Amino acid sequence: MRPSDLPVVETTVNERTEADTVACTVRDGIAWVRFNRPEKRNCMSPKLNRQMLRVLTDLEFRADVGVLVLSGEGSAWSAGMDLKEYFRESESSGIAGVRQSQREAYAWWERLRWFQKVTIAMVNGWCFGGGYGPLFACDLAICSDDAQFGLSEINWGILPGGGATKVAAELMPMRKAMYHALLGENLTGRQAEAAGLVNESVPAGQLESRVTEVANRLLKKNWETLKATKDAMRRVREMTYDNAEDYLIRAQEALNWHDKSDGRHEGMRQFLDEKVYKPGLGEYDKTKA
């Protein structure tokens, strides 16, 4: 079954099948992928984690997908890991069960982090704990003003694991990240924007239209260059300046050969010869390539 065929099914917790834990539709170049456990505030269970990897695998190289938007059904984006299914039930199987559950979660977060297309987290509600993993994995993040962000782990006796502490320390200033992790207090969408967890926060009624606007702007750009750029942004953060400089030179050389549309030269041609666009004000027309 293709992700575009996956239905959004309103069922009870016991009835929801593994395939029903993720909903997906593809429209006009955008893949809308949604956590689909609204009755559990979209907590990530082993079933959901396995299904999400299947969906991402199916979508990654589809020619009709240029941008992926990750959101949640109902009132939450994701309230983190399912305490019963991900923690208690996995731990009942010993270390083997724990490691299996961890690998299933981290596998799709890693796939999302290095996904072939640009990804946007559309945070429409609660985003807690383990939800910071896929939040960070998405290239861009836009939330509603009434969204809630929280590292509640301190309130029930564990540290923010699974990468959540790293996400907070990576995206937020040190003092804000420390307060966020130690106090377990929630942030609103506007506060999350100010802290650097998301790019911007908008009124709930404008969230989907704003995300669609950003996605459509991305679709007009050279997809190969977008992939190279997003990878470069993640890689160079951990490099010295000299190493980053060398990496970026080699990455650009590789892109020049890898981009079958020859976007580099087509863009220069449209600017220098046809004089039909200005790089500082918009993208070249890739339909002419």
List the helices and strands and how they pair.
Elements: E1 22-27, E2 30-35, H1 46-59, E3 67-72, E4 76-78, H2 83-91, H3 94-113, E5 118-123, E6 126-128, H4 132-137, E7 140-144, E8 148-150, H5 164-171, H6 174-183, E9 187-188, H7 189-195, E10 200-202, H8 207-219, H9 223-236, H10 241-258, H11 263-274
Parallel strand pairs: 2-3, 3-5, 4-6, 5-7, 6-8, 7-10
Antiparallel strand pairs: 1-2, 8-9
Helix pairs in contact: 1-3, 2-3, 5-6, 9-10
Describe this structure in words.
- By secondary structure, this protein is an alpha/beta fold.
- Helix content is about 45%, strand content about 15%.
- It is built from 11 helices and 10 strands.
- It is globular and about 65 Å long.
Q: Describe the global form.
A: globular
The end-to-end span amounts to 34 Å
- The residue ranges in which pLDDT falls below 50 over 5 or more consecutive positions are 1-13
- The helix/strand class is alpha/beta
Neighbour order of strands in the largest sheet: 1-2-3-5-7-10
Give the biggest beta sheet: 6 strands, mixed
User: What value does the Rg take, in angstroms?
Assistant: 20 Å
List keywords for this structure.
289 residues; 6-stranded mixed beta sheet; 11 helices; 10 strands
